[in-house]
Amino acid sequence: MKNINKIALKKNQDFNIDYYFNGIKNKNITILSRAITLLESTKIEHQLLAEELVDKCLPFSGNSIRIGITGVPGVGKSTFIESFGNYITENKNKSIAILAIDPSSTKSGGSILGDKTRMNALSTNSKAFIRPSPSAGTLGGVAKATRQSIVLCEAFGFDTIIIETVGVGQSETEVNSMVDFFLLLMLAGAGDELQGIKRGIMEMADVLIINKTDIEQTDKVKLAKQHYKNALHLFPSNPNGWVPKVETCSAIKNENISKVWDIIYEFVSLTKTNGWFDEKRKIQSKYWLSETINSSILNTFYKNPKIKDLLKELEDKVITNQISPFKAARILLKEFCA
Ligand code: GDP
After folding, report:
1. Which among 4, 57, 173, 322 could bridge 317 via Cys, Cβ 3.0 to 4.6 Å?
2. Residue 249 Cα: closest atom of ligand 1
3. If 0-12 CB within 10 Å is exposed, 13-18 middle and 19+ buried, where does residue 74 land?
4. What is the pLDDT of residue 6?
5. Taking the model in full, what pTM does it have?
6. Is residue 83 located within the same domain as residue 207?
7. What is the pLDDT at residue 234?
8. Are residues 51 and 161 in the same domain?
9. Same domain, 224 and 123
10. Does the pLDDT at position 194 exceed 60?
11. pLDDT at 2
C-alpha cells in the first residue's frame, strides 16, 4: 500500500485540479484514489491543491448517509461492514465507500484496512470502494483527510459512506464530528470494561449492535441486550428525538443485517423530518472551521523560532519556581503577537 501511495504522490505533482475533478465526476476510481492520496499529503503545495479540489467538489457533495462504525479489535467490524455493504448494494441499490481512521496506525505504521485479507468479497464489489487508513500522520491530520475524503466520495456519487475506527476512545470524537449516525459493535460475552469501551463512546452511539450471536447462548444474548438497553437509558436524552437502540446480529452469517439498515433508515427519516439531520451537519462544519483554525494557530506558535527559544528559557524558570506558568504564558503570547 505504501509504495502505491508514493508513486501516486509523485505523479500528483504533474496533475492539475481539472484532472482530479473531471476524474471524480466521471467516476474514475483510480483518480478518486489518487485525489485522496493528495488529501493525505503533508506537503503544502499538495494541501493547497487538495483544498481547491474539495471546494470544487463541495456543491456536488452532501447527498449521502455518513455512518461511523466502531468497536474493539476482533469484535467483527470488517466482517460486519462486508456483510452490510454487500446487503445494501445488492438489495437496496446503494453504493458504499469505506474510509478508516486508525489512531494505532499513526504509531505502528500499520493500518486497520490495510490488511488485504479483510473484506475480500466487498473489495470485488463494483459498487463499493474501500480506502485504507493512511499509514502516516497525526490523528488530527488523518481525521482532516478523512473529512475531506467524504466530500470527494460524495461528489463521485457514493450514497453511503462508512467511517471505521477502532473503539479505543481516541478517534471516536473525531468520527462523531463527521458522521450522521454512529454504530457501536459489541459482544455479548464480555462486560463493557473488558471490551475497553469507554462510557463516552456508548453515549455517542445511535445504535448498539451485539455481534456474533451465532456462537453465543440465546440467554446470554438476551441478558446482554437488556443490560445495554438499561445502560443507554441512563444517558440524557438526545435533542434530536432519537432513542438509541440495541440490536443483535451475526455478521458472519448475514443474520439481522437488514434490521440494522432499517434502524439507520428510521433514524435518517426522523432526523430529516425534525431538522436535526441538517442541524448536526451545520454544527460539524462549524466544528471543523474552529478545529482547523485552532490547530493552525498552535502549529504556527510552536514552530516560531523566536517562541521556541523563549519557551525553553521560560520553561526552566517555571520548573524552578522563578516565575508562574501563567505569567510565562502571557509573556510568550505577547511575544508571539508582537
Ligand atoms: P475487527 O477487528 O473488529 O474488524 O474484527 P473482524 O471482522 O476481523 O473479526 C474478527 C474475528 O471474528 C474473525 O475471525 C471473524 O471471522 C470473526 N467474526 C466476525 N463476525 C462474526 C460473527 O458474527 N460470528 C462469528 N462466529 N465470528 C465472527
Report:
1. 322
2. 23
3. exposed
4. 45
5. 0.87
6. yes
7. 86
8. no
9. yes
10. no
11. 38
Between 175 and 198, name the one with better pLDDT.
Answer: 175
* Domain final position from 240, 273, 306: 273
Ligand 1 nearest-atom number relative to CA 73? 2
Q: Which helix (H) or strand (E) holds 30?
A: helix 29-40
Do residue 94 and residue 230 come from a single domain?
A: yes
User: Containing domain of residue 6, as a range?
Assistant: 1-58
Q: Which residues pair with 250 in a beta bridge?
A: 255
Q: How many domains does the chain have?
A: 3
If pLDDT is split at 50, 70 and 90, which confidence band does 5 have? very low
Instruction: Give 119 Cα–ligand 1 centroid separation in angstroms.
Output: 11
Q: Is the pLDDT of residue 189 over 60?
A: yes
Question: Please, is 261 exposed, middle or buried when counting C-beta atoms within 10 Å of its C-beta (0-12, 13-18, 19+)?
Answer: middle
Whether residue 278 lies inside any domain: the answer is: no
Report the nearest-CA residue for atom 17 of ligand 1. Answer: 76
The ligand 1 atom at the shortest distance from the C-alpha of residue 211 is 23
User: Does one domain contain both 127 and 203?
Assistant: yes
Q: Is the pLDDT of residue 115 over 60?
A: no
25 and 156 in a single domain? The answer is no
- Examine residue 316 and state whether it is found in any structural domain, yes or no: yes
